[in-house]
């Protein structure tokens, strides 16, 4: 039984920040126009934002805001303890900080609901759970002076995952440790969430000492073996993607459902270079064997959550040049920013935090061969862990119906292992 005061605090926090899900209007219209039938719970959940979902299911929820050194105002969601187990506040609880992937948000780790979603599994296992939101997504679209909605000035969007690692993560981590009074935490990063961890600890190696473990869920770094046709087709044009977008008046990608609908209608035909992306991200949730199709409206209400064009372009550079290195502006700008004509590679020998790397055999976005390359460059890899199911893919890490059985419960075991090594 959760103490009433916790529920009151949770509901009060949500009331102050009352919002609908990022794409609630879209999902409502989609269901009305299609005539599809879904349970009332799914429909209700599809209209709630992440804090609203957490509060609805009886978990304590806190909303925290931090400001980066370059002026971005970011939002974190905290579940300080469990609902059924470990359901009292304890300042000595170990901390689990979770960071989402490209085009995603903190919602990735709660949409599957109690008993299944990673955030709830960790809270019930005795962790103080913090969920980050990178600059530019639905929850972190604020800045001290820049306007994300301006069509005349895209300066808000002139960032890649380099800045997320170099500025957002330190702001999050320092705030969490100061708030809790602890000195270390676990870092769990899915896809780009793993990329940014590598960026942080290579550029600011002093942060390695603040991590009990790095749990990399398909951490994206090298992409020599990436076989997503869209990425392969766009990579040669990475140097014009961003400049073209700016000329058209936008710096964000897939943050607007109207744009997504237009994109789907014009570029998701079979044979298009975007077909793989459309199938996996925009239209194909109900085609996946290991997705619960009844939850499609809930997934679509939160994804995509927004990202900058430059984030996409930066991954394009990784593919084009077969190198995990900083963002390539142009020769002159590179000289000013980095002191060299070409951007430097991230020095992964400086990433000394204990690293546990998890991968799926059928992951197209982060091919297992590229994960092995990453592992060979990191100096403190505790283990590489292949998910047992042969068909486990990039999106199963967050949406797979068996993710708890094949990954999350084991993740708790590995985190406890890391704690025993301290």
Automatic annotation (TrEMBL):
An annotated GO BP = lipid catabolic process
Q: Which residues form the Partial AB-hydrolase lipase domain?
A: 53-112
Q: Which InterPro entries does UniProt cross-reference here?
A: AB_hydrolase_fold, AB_hydrolase_lipase, Lipase_euk
Keyword Glycoprotein in record: yes
Q: Which UniProt keywords apply?
A: Glycoprotein, Hydrolase, Lipid degradation, Lipid metabolism, Signal
GO MF assignments = hydrolase activity, acting on ester bonds
- List the active site: 191, 363, 394
Q: Which domain of life is it from?
A: Eukaryota
List the SUPFAM superfamilies: alpha/beta-Hydrolases
Q: Output the Pfam families linked to this UniProt entry.
A: Abhydro_lipase
The yes or no answer to whether the keyword Metal-binding is present is no
Q: Which PANTHER family match?
A: LYSOSOMAL ACID LIPASE-RELATED
Protein family membership: Belongs to the AB hydrolase superfamily. Lipase family.
Q: Return the protein name.
A: Lipase
